[in-house]
Input
Amino acid sequence: MMNALTPSTSPFAGLRVAITGGTSGLGRALVEQLHAQGAHVAFVARDAPRVDALARSLPGTHGIVGDIADKAQTHRIALQINALLGGLDVLVNNASSLGPVPLALLADTECEDFEAALATNLVGPFRLTKALLGALTAAARDGAPHGRASVVVNIGSDAATTPYAGWGAYGASKAALVHLSRIWNEELAEHGVRMLSIDPGDMDTPLHALALPDADPAALKRPRDAARDVIAAIASALVATGAVA
Output
């Protein structure tokens, strides 16, 4: 089982991983589990005290304060990831925005709130991935002789395929992210970069509580369990299946 792996047996030992939205929910669980498996982890989040606290609690990880929705911060975040990790093997675009809270029907959604959801859930991951493609393709070339690809994971949602009333901004942005992932996976395959879109399921996270404050946490998936599923999918994708240009 993936959670039983140690740094000496894990396929992530020594790999360089960056995770956005890394201080809570699924992002934090990924940071903790990949660090425990020997990966070199950098994580990005907006709240400086929480970034600092998590980095101090997990010595060897690197916390980066930043907002991926802000175009002006993209290259600074990418440069920090490259500088701190010395390259990049795996990128997890996990940071997400619900859009308007409380959730609103599309007709009642302000244009600015819709744009904000797109900025975090779609355009931000696009910009950051684009800024890090050089590092990812370089890592794929280095890994090719060992049968290893580079991997980008975009965290999706069932709201990308199911039209839930009130989830318009979130669902539309996640649907676009899922299709973006498919297109980019086709375009990057020859360069040894795999692009995954993963729906982790309904989880007991602060984001879910913000969206549905009356939901029963006991009925929701634990972030640590969702993280194990995501990590297993990444481990499978790391196995290179095509030539690297």
Summary: The domain at 2-237 is CATH 3.40.50.720 (Rossmann fold). The first strand starts at residue 16 and ends at 20. The chain has seven helices and six strands. The mean pLDDT is 92.
